[in-house]
Amino acid sequence: MSNEDAKRYWKEGLGQEMAYYDANIKKDIEIEIKEKQLKKLLRTGKFSKAKLREVIDLEPAIFTILYNRNKLD
Questions:
Q1: Is 57 left (phi over 0), alpha (psi -120 to 50) or beta?
Q2: Distance between CA atoms of 72 and 70, rounded to whole angstroms?
Q3: Closest by CA position to 66, among listed 25, 55, 23
Q4: What Cα–Cα distance (Å) separates residue 42 from each residue in 11, 49, 59?
Q5: Which of 37, 40, 54, 58 could form a disulfide with 62 if both were Cys (CB 3.0 to 4.6 A apart)?
Q6: Candidate from 7-11, 48-52, 64-68 with smallest mean pLDDT
Q7: How many domains does one find in the chain?
Q8: What is the pLDDT of residues 1-24, one digit of tens each?
Q9: Which domain holds residue 40?
Q10: 48 Ramachandran zone, left/alpha/beta (phi>0; psi -120 to 50)
Q11: Nearest C-alpha neighbor of 42 from the set 2, 19, 61, 69
């Protein structure tokens, strides 16, 4: 592998890693915002779990975690 090949490989790899990192940050922010929305809606007591799932619009596993963490007992 030439020096140029090594530099290109490093640059491409780092670019892919940064894109993955940025995507994860965006997803974390989205989940945080939706969790705040879920908390507000849970406090009203007006919505069923099924309706909340529909309104919050997250993957089922993530919704379940957030719901269980924030539900009012």
A1: left
A2: 6
A3: 55
A4: 46, 9, 18
A5: 58
A6: 7-11
A7: 1
A8: 677 776 676 667 776 777 777 888
A9: 3-70
A10: beta
A11: 69
Q: Supply the DSSP string of 31-55, one letter for each residue.
A: HHHHHHHHHHHHHHT-S-HHHHHHH
CB 56 within 8 A of CB 63: yes
What is the maximum span of the chain, computed from C-alpha positions, in angstroms?
Answer: 65
The pTM of this model reads 0.71
Rounded CA gap, 16 and 33, in Å? 26
Q: How far is CA 63 from CA 5, 6, 51, 60, 71, in A?
A: 44, 43, 12, 5, 11
CA distance 20 to 70: 29
Overall size of the chain counted in residues: 73
